[in-house]
Structures are given as C-alpha cells and as structure tokens.
Amino acid sequence: MTVPLIERFREVLPVSEATPVVSLGEGSTPLLRAPRLSERLGMELWLKWEASNPTGSYKDRGMTVAVSKAVEEGARAVICASTGNTAASAAAYAARAGMPALVLQPRGAVAGGKLAQTRALGARVLEVRGSFDEALASARELAARGTHALVNSLNPYRIEGQKTAVFEIVEELGSPPDAFVVPYGGGGNTRAYARGMRELGIDARLVSVEAAQRPTTLASAIRIAAPAHAASVAASGAEIVAVRDEDIVEAWRELAQTEGLFCEPASAAGLAALRLGAVRAERVVVTITGHGLKDPEAAALHAPLAAEVDPDPDAIAGAAA
User: Fold this and answer.
1) pLDDT exceeding 90 applies to what percent of the chain?
2) Is the dihedral angle over the CA atoms 106, 111, 115, 118 positive or is it negative?
3) Which of 15, 44, 90, 167 is the most core-located residue (most Cβ within 10 A)?
4) Could you give the domains of the chain?
5) Over the stretch 107-121, which tens digit does the pLDDT of each residue have?
6) Distance (Å, rounded) from C-alpha 3 to C-alpha 269?
C-alpha cells in the first residue's frame, strides 16, 4: 500500500493533524538508472520517473498539499490556468475532495491527452482567447475575490509538495547527485528543488532547462512566455540552459528507444541539455516530469510510422528485417 505523500513527509510539510489528507497515492516514484545513456554520455545518469504519479505528471506532488490545505481553509472550489498538467492534477484532486475545479487554458495550446483527461475528471474547462500568462492573470484575479483557491504553483503549498522529490532522490541514492536537472516552464519546479536542496543542506548544481522558442515550442508543457517564478529561479542560483525544439525531439526519441521511457516532449528537455554538453558531472539526476500519453499528437508527428503488410509470415519477416 502506497503511503500518501503528506504522511510520508509530514515533518517537512506545512500540515497539522487538522489537515485533511486528499491523496491519490502520489510520490514515491521510481529513480531509474539509465545504463545505455550513461555509457553514451560518459556519466552516471539517473532518471526520476515522475510520470508514475496518479495523473501522469509531477504536478500531483504539490497538488495533494494544495488541495488538502484548500479544504482545511474552507475553500469551496479550486481554479488554475494551465498548459495541461496542472489542469489534470487539479481536476483529479478536486474530484477526490468533492470540490468543483475551474480550469482556464490558452485556446488551442493544450495537448489533446491532457485536455481529454481534465474533461473526463469533471473540471469546468474554459478556453481563453489569449496566452497562458493572460489566463493566469485572470485566475489570480478570481482567486483574489475569494471565490476560488488558486492551485497554480504560485500557491506556496504546491512548492512545498514538489520539493519532496529531492528528499526521495537523496534517500534512494544514499547521497546527493552532483547535479539535478529539471525542465523549466513556469519555474515552480526549479524553485521547489532549490527549496528541497536548501532544507537538506545540499550544495549541488541545479540546472533548469527551457525551450529556446518559449512562446511557440512544440513542448507544450513548457510553452510559457513569461515564467511566473523567473525571479525565484534567478535567486536560487540555478543554471539556465536553453535548448531548441529539434534537440528536444532528438532527446525524446532517444529516451524512448534507448531506455524504454515514453515521456511528453517537455520532459526530455533536461536530457537534451546533457546531449548538448551543457551539463558535465559524474552523477546526474534528470527529472522526467510527464508521461508520453499526455501528448499523443507528438508521437503521431515524430515517432516512426506503422507499415502495412499482408497476413503472410514471409511478408511479415521481410518487412521486419
């Protein structure tokens, strides 16, 4: 039986006995050695597989704390702006808590898998005729009116929950890696990792990898023109690396075909930085933030196509050669 993240890390989270635990079994995700990529890159590479969280992304770590505290503080509904993963997580945890969830998303900018997931979980989804940043501004204004609890990563409870990934990594490795590498969209996860490292007294590199074409990148999870946590990321001392979309796609393919891990494109940003030589260290942990089924359109565009063949053993053998 999986121990809820809040129970496992209660001593380092802002919760009390009065906090109702809204959980779907998040956290305790695998830390996987990447033997073939380690050999290719000349380092000891580990992958924090956050895609095994309940809704398929790392967002669940923070959402369990944010929604639990929202219930404790008497909120009647939650709201978020999202490029997809936050929406799905907010919808799931709100449903678990018996609360309505309102999701604002930029029109046409959310991967189909994430949109389907959010709708299936019962959230009220509104497509905003504008950017993510405009949707977030509207969500913040509505939350300020007291009608909804904002559960974007601007909610401090989200950061508290997400920092627990650092605790898990260090616990499993037995000591800190030389570098932590995470994708950089809004910057909330970078901020959370920096907090976890600080609380554990870790003096390791923190590398935050963004898309070079932020407003238009194919990696929709990090398609955020103005990161909400930019100031905190800068203050954290994290190294910021920008990678091109073609580098993300190449890393995405290699991760799937070499190590058997199918992630959404944004999750491959960290590996793209390693492949470009932007991170050189002996032992590195790259966080893979979301599952590939979140963005099936990417697979349709960039994965090898299926071939047609007659139902004949010789024809099949020839086609497979």
Assistant:
1) 83
2) negative
3) 90
4) 5-58+157-302 (3.40.50.1100), 59-154 (3.40.50.1100)
5) 887 878 888 999 999
6) 30
